[in-house]
Specification:
The structure holds 2 protein chains of 2 kinds. Chain A contains 14 helices and 1 strand. The relative contact order of chain A is 0.14. Helices cover about 70% and strands about 0% of the residues of chain A. In chain A, helix 5 runs antiparallel to helix 8, helix 9 packs antiparallel against helix 12 and helix 12 crosses helix 13. By secondary structure, chain B is α/β, with parallel strands linked by helices. Chain B folds into 2 domains: about 200 residues, P-loop containing nucleotide triphosphate hydrolases (Rossmann fold, 3-Layer(aba) Sandwich); about 130 residues, Coagulation Factor XIII, Chain A, domain 1 (Distorted Sandwich). A 6-stranded mixed sheet of chain B has the order 5-6-7-3-8-9, with helices on both faces. In chain B, a hairpin with a 4-residue loop joins strand 17 and strand 18. The chains are: A mainly alpha, B alpha/beta. At the A-B interface, helix 1, strand 1, helix 3, helix 6 and helix 14 of A face helix 1, helix 3, strand 4 and helix 4 of B.
């Protein structure tokens, strides 16, 4: 190797980009979130989410139809038992669409939560062999649910057309409620993902948690069953805000959702921030433990 | 070119091991342990009950490791299993944090601790190229730009849209390595990647690594393949029990490591002749590996001659003792032996008591690369008697720098054979083209 050969490409590279410097040292206490790191690794985030989507239905006979079947069949069961037999009040809209409008964001939340809580353990080989901001893994788990959500949402629109439900102008705020579902799912997901690395019990807790949470959220029933301060307090479950928001924006249910949505948003953000902090604190030993 | 790429100061890494339930806890254990904790504190205060068992659960994989790597340098890290090599690479590639100490890394780091990290069997070759590229830190645009090159290098163009679970293991490895080989960070960290795959694949990896080194990029390379380390690296660091015990030119570190492993070196002396190997006819005094210039060497360029010098004491004048050398490669195969009775004049000369120095000259371009162990003996014939014998008396490394003028020529692959002589070839060309060849 002559010095001349080596010098040319080196100089070129140097002009192209400044050489980044990283200091490797032990971190102490609560680490800073370093969100810019995640931004830098956005392409990896994209590819991991894309991989999850690609792989999810690869060997299934029905493929992506599952994304629709899951909430749709639940809606059918709910409609038969709660709507038809128990005659649950559904705030003036047909019961099937009343429950489906809640099940679509719920499925997104529940799948994202399940995927992200198991994501670190599932990607153990990546974590022990390559460096990247670990938060990318659970975030990709939640984001990969967007496609499923999109498919189910199309079915929801079809059902609205079938039942002649016209969305109100509030529909422009719908993305905010989707974001609320995403933040909640991610907040809980990263808490559980970090705990799962150290305590494998989490794997057994998650299905149970999701089941309980489903009934603690006004999906099969209307939140107007609760009154006064109880309803506002109910907003402590962030999915209450999401579900009420979806119904309010799409179906035009006439409920005052303001207070509970506000509480939900605060709780959801708190979950996300504390989850991210806890995650960052635990992150330094993931590669050694996972 | 001379700026620092990596500066490590006092890097240490502690692992906790040996807990009964494995590395991770269950929630129940933690919950149960919480109320017990004050109790165990009291216990240990009172009776000093097993504080030492706590200590045993920790090991220091790295202890106070300091070194510097200059930009464009190819550094080899060698050491036995468990010496901390992999841990050091994990710390430098930010996979795990050090327990103490620090390292400044200047430049984008690409680490290759495993070939095919993140490959998904259900995805096609094409999809895996993008996924694996992203995992290794390539931008999508970079992967796109190099996609054809990657597919061509892996020789899998016609299977790009087949899920990799249907690939043969060879195809899988080629594809995985190909993606990694097209990674272009300023600093490349490579661990034992060459330990996988067949010999030809390993060679392909080695050649690619050599290219990387030539391009002036910084490479940190861990391998058990000492021939590869001497060939690729200018400098090497020897780790023993998490400590850096030696740092210097690769060939020197490798040969001292090999010697430490085998207990032999390029020079062996028996200062007191009464305890030296031998009998009342002859006793060994010293054996050494040297250059034509007389310098003791542990490694030689494959193109250069190497001399083995045997000194022994001849104690009598009736028998005619001669020096014998056997040469073994690192798999224990005896390559050849030689005896100083090939020197007819000496063979027929009468012996007188005194010190005899016999030197055997092995020409350049004759030995194959690798480590060579030498057995030295003093024998006499008619009848055949072995007076002194020392197995593994000395050893040395033969290094092929692949400069193109050796017997390997421009070829970078595996050169078969126990020796690598440079033979003469006659080549004739007939100007007429036979008819059959045109068809």
């Amino acid at each position: 190797m002559s010095a001349g050969d080596a010098a040319i490409p080196h100089e070129e590279r140097r002009m192209a980009a400044p050489v980044p410097t990283v200091r490797i040292e032990p971190s102490h206490g609560w680490a800073d979130l370093r969100l810019s790191d995640i931004w830098e690794y956005r392409e990896l985030l994209y590819f991991l989410a894309w991989r999850d989507i690609k792989v999810r239905y690869k060997q299934t006979a029905l493929g992506a139809t599952w994304a629709i079947l899951q909430p749709f069949l639940t809606m059918v069961v709910f409609s038969v038992f709660f709507g038809h037999l128990a005659r649950m009040p559904s705030e003036g809209v047909p019961y099937p669409i009343f429950s489906f409008a809640a099940l679509v964001p719920w499925t997104f939340f529940a799948n994202g939560l399940t995927l992200s809580s198991n994501s670190l353990v599932a990607n153990a080989n990546l974590i022990s062999k390559v460096y990247f901001p670990r938060l990318v893994v659970p975030i990709a788990g939640v984001l990969s649910g967007i496609v499923d959500f999109g498919l189910a949402f199309v079915v929801l629109l079809g059902m609205m057309a079938y039942y002649h439900v016209v969305p109100t102008v509030n529909v422009v705020l719908l993305p905010l409620f989707l974001l609320l579902a995403l933040v909640t799912s991610l907040g809980v997901g990263i808490w559980l993902a970090a705990l799962n690395v150290e305590f494998r019990d989490v794997r057994y807790v998650v299905p149970f948690l999701v089941q309980i949470w489903l009934f603690a959220t006004p999906i099969a029933y209307a939140s107007s069953l609760l009154h006064g301060p109880w309803r506002t307090l109910y907003g402590l479950n962030p999915m209450v805000g999401v579900v009420e928001g979806f119904r309010w924006a799409l179906l035009g249910t006439r409920v005052d959702i303001g207070p509970s949505v506000a509480i939900s948003a605060v709780v959801s953000l708190l979950l996300l921030i504390t989850g991210a902090l806890y995650f960052r604190r635990m992150e330094r030993t993931f590669a050694d433990v996972v | 070119m001379s700026d620092v790429a990596i500066q490590a100061e006092g890097l240490s890494k502690r692992y906790r091991i040996g807990t009964a339930s494995g590395p991770y806890k269950t929630l129940r254990e933690s919950l149960m342990a919480a109320p017990m904790r004050p109790l165990s504190v009291v216990k240990s205060r009172l009776g000093g009950a097993r504080p030492e068992s706590k200590r045993q659960e920790e090991i220091w994989a790295l202890r106070d490791v300091s070194f510097e790597v200059r930009a464009g340098e190819v550094l080899g890290i060698i050491g036995r299993n468990g010496a901390g090599k992999s841990t050091l690479l994990k710390v430098l590639s930010r996979i795990t944090e050090p327990t103490s100490g620090l390292a400044d890394v200047h430049g984008r780091v690409g680490s290759l601790l495993e070939v095919g990290t993140g490959f998904h069997p259900e995805l096609t070759g094409r999809e895996n190229i993008f996924l694996n590229g992203a995992i290794l830190g390539m931008k999508r645009a970079e992967i796109k730009a190099r996609f054809d090159e990657i597919a061509a290098f892996a020789e899998i163009e016609q299977f790009l849209d087949t899920p990799v679970k249907r690939y043969s293991s060879g195809m899988y490895m080629r594809l995985a390595f190909s993606v990694a080989a097209h990674l272009e960070p300023e600093i490349l960290i490579v661990d034992e990647v060459l330990a996988v795959g067949d010999a030809s694949f390993q060679k392909k990896c080695l050649n690619k690594m050599e290219d990387v080194g030539r391009q002036g990029r910084t490479v940190i390379f861990v391998s058990h393949n000492m021939a590869a380390v001497t060939r690729l690296c200018q400098r090497a660091v020897l780790l023993v029990g998490g400590h850096v015990v030696d740092d210097g030119p690769a060939h020197r570190i490798v040969s001292s490591y090999m010697d430490a492993g085998m207990g032999i070196s390029a020079m062996r002396e028996w200062p007191d002749w009464r305890t030296a190997p031998g009998d009342d006819v002859a006793r060994l005094r010293s054996v050494r590996v040297r250059t034509e210039g007389g310098q003791t060497v542990e490694s030689v360029d494959i193109r250069q001659p190497v001399l083995i010098e045997v000194e022994y004491v001849n104690l009598q004048s009736t028998l005619r003792p001669t020096a014998v050398l056997h040469f073994f490669n690192d798999t224990g195969v005896c390559l050849f032996s030689s005896n100083d009775f090939t020197n007819r004049e000496w063979w027929n000369a009468p012996r007188t008591p005194g010190i005899v120095r016999a030197t055997c000259r092995i020409p350049g371009n004759f030995l194959a690369e690798g480590s060579i162990a030498v057995l030295a003996a003093i024998s006499s014939y008619e009848p055949h008697v072995v007076h002194a014998l020392e197995r593994d008396a000395v050893s040395f490394q033969v290094v092929d720098h692949s400069t193109g003028d050796g017997a390997r020529g421009p070829y970078g692959g595996t050169v078969p054979g126990l020796v690598r002589p440079m033979l003469e070839w006659d080549v004739d060309v007939e100007p007429a083209v036979p008819n059959a060849a045109t068809g």
